Amino acid sequence: MSDRLTEEVTKLQGRFTALKAEVGKVLVGQEDMLHRLMLGLLAGGHVLLEGVPGLAKTLVVRTLADAIDGTFSRIQFTPDMLPGDVVGTQIFNPREGNYTVKKGPVFGNFILADEINRAPAKVQSALLEAMQEKQVTLGDQTFKLTDPFLVLATMNPIEQEGTYPLPEAQLDRFMLKLKVGYPTRDDEVKIIDRMAGSGAEPTASKMMTTDEILAARDAVKQIFVDDKVKRYAVDVVAATRDPKGSGMPQLATLIDNGASVRASIALIKVAKAQALMQGRTYISPHDVKTIAHDVLRHRVLASYEAEAQGKTSDHVIAQILENVPVP
Length: 327
Description:
Layout: H1 2-24, H2 31-43, E1 46-50, H3 57-66, E2 68-69, E3 72-76, H4 84-87, E4 88-93, E5 98-103, E6 110-114, H5 121-124, H6 128-133, E7 135-138, E8 141-144, E9 150-155, H7 168-172, E10 174-179, H8 185-195, E11 208-209, H9 210-221, H10 227-241, E12 255-257, H11 261-277, H12 285-296, E13 301-302, H13 304-308, H14 313-323
Parallel strand pairs: 1-9, 1-10, 2-11, 3-6, 6-9
Antiparallel strand pairs: 4-5, 7-8, 12-13
Helix pairs in contact: 1-2, 2-11, 9-11, 10-11, 11-12, 12-14
């Protein structure tokens, strides 16, 4: 069994490296963002990308969807949207005297929820059932969504004009939250050459099928996790809920709310995907540590006192990772 898994993992590592290279034909820099998007794809979790406009968040999601042979929907969130614009609605037919269902753009494999925090909470909440149960209820009918189903959402920083904070329940549905920064100067010059040059803008070719993605997820599930690593992941998450009990009393006033059990599950799932991307059949504590910020930053709510000191949830997570003993 282990030999077969090793062979499968090696093969999949090559396929995902090729997929990354294909997306790299369009995307310049931002390798870290692309790598973590692929971790979400492998782990079967939704991904939220936060950054100011113009940092290729939409481009990377669209290009990744182009490189995989699946259905792609793009929803541009605006303040005047209604929940039916996302999930669909029932339309009354007066001649027949009945209702027909018109499915919304959420029915697809890859859903780009662009600028998700430009719409009010009632619209964002329309995604909750779809993201958690992978189904949509319209009237008295429930429709299963196709597999793989992945929401890749972009959002502007909360400080920007015309944004609404995402409800905690909505945030918790995202497996990863990625902070997207500016490219280096050299990368920015390459972007200008590629996007403002005389040649045609590059595009990505189809590299993988949805069946291959599902097979890769099955392989990820078989990655070995030692009990000590599970315990380490739980210790890290527990420290966000009760820092005093975890030997970090200095953090108690900096955290309003800690991470839920979903965070522990996500840490292990994403660490397994990370191991596969590196061609390993087991995960190490380092895998958990590497992806902890992306899994926890939107689940750990920093207090007003933390904000007054200029500290974010990332500062808190860094302190926890420094202090929780690594097995």
